[in-house]
Amino acid sequence: MNSFWRKIIINTTLHDQRKRNYSDYALAKGYTEFKIMARRHVKDFFLITIGILSATFGFKGFLLTNHFIDGGATGISLLISALTDIPLYVLIICVNAPFVILGYRIMGRPFAIKTALAISGLAISLATISIPDITSDNLLVAVFGGFFLGAGIGLAVRGGAVIDGTEVLAIFLSRKFGTTMGDIIIVINVIIFSSAAYFLGIEVALYSMITYLAASKTLDFIVEGIEEYIGVTIISSRSNKMREMIIEKMGRGVTVYSGKGGYGKRGETKEVDIIYTVITRLELNKLNTEIEKIEPDAFVVMNSVKDTKGGMIKKRPLKH
Asked: Could you say which DSSP state residue 21 is in?
């Protein structure tokens, strides 16, 4: 390993930067960590860049000329832009600046730096890129403007940043007042759309709500992925059969926990193996059918899983 890469690895991934005599193993491990970090940063940069371009297309191709707004910090920027002569790219930075500072306190410096760069990139994109109006139909403007804006926000989130700081505020307020993030976001958006109805008119506010719905659904789709995952916990007296069925017929991996089941009036307990697996929603019907074949009275608990990584989530080929 030449001195150039050695210096980079020591300064980026190895913990004790004052130490210079590292073993070959330590340097190799540091090089592996450096490659992982580099790939992650390149991927994040790509996602954030595509997100910025998508949001810019939604803004300038659909929303701006029709004065339609979205929810959150983006909606506040669009509303002020519609009521004043302040350019949107200036408002994007000014409205989101407090959320970047708040994000630094809550999420840490890397998140704040990424978010500041993403918002700055969006502002530069809005100031420099010229996009003609795509359509004058209000419904198409509301739906597709929201779609491209939501896709842009979602891709930025995938890249580890935000170009709309409302969720940072929602996290902060939910921790402070003990409410849910959803409740805070709803309150913020009620205020924004009520202001839009007062200043811009009822019709514009109603179309803006369509924009918000299209953006939020697209955002959910981008962030959570195409397939929604379901975590399934199975407690059965025939746990070995359940495990074999999930591996062989469903093509999924399983985790087996050792537990105790309580029953009867006096709460007697007995040892039991608890099966846990993750499947997609489309496979849920098949899994229920297979469980019923083995033990119809098995206790099954299902819950939504936002995202997964590693393991046997990607289905392996089954033996025929």
From this structure: -
Helix axes 166-177, 88-107, angle to 10 degrees: 40
Mean pLDDT of 279-304: 86
Ordered by start, the domain boundaries in the chain are: 41-224, 229-305
What value, to the nearest 5°, has the Cα angle with vertex 228 and ends 294 and 300? 30
Give residue for tokens 């099954």: 300
Residue 95 and residue 92: Cα distance in Å, rounded? 6
Domain 229-305 has CATH 3.40.1190.20: no
Sequence letter at residue 106: I
The alpha helices in 133-201, defined as continuous H runs, are 138-158, 166-177, 181-200
Helix (H) or strand (E) holding 31: helix 24-58
- 78's tokens: 């669009």
Alpha-carbon distance 296 to 173, whole Å? Answer: 45
DSSP 281: G
Tens-place pLDDT, residues 93-113: 999 999 999 989 888 888 899
Number of CB atoms found within 10 A of residue 291's CB:
21
DSSP H or E segment with residue 280 = strand 268-280
pTM given for the model: 0.76
pLDDT confidence of residue 309: 65
Give Cα 13 to chain centroid, integer Å.
27
Contact 279, 232 (CB under 8 A): yes
Q: Comparing C-alpha atoms, which of 80, 48, 315, 76 is closest to residue 157?
A: 48
How many Å is the maximal CA-CA distance in the chain?
Answer: 74
Contacts of 301 (CB under 8 A, 6+ apart): 232, 233
Query: What is the DSSP secondary structure assignment for residue 23, as one 8-state letter?
Result: -
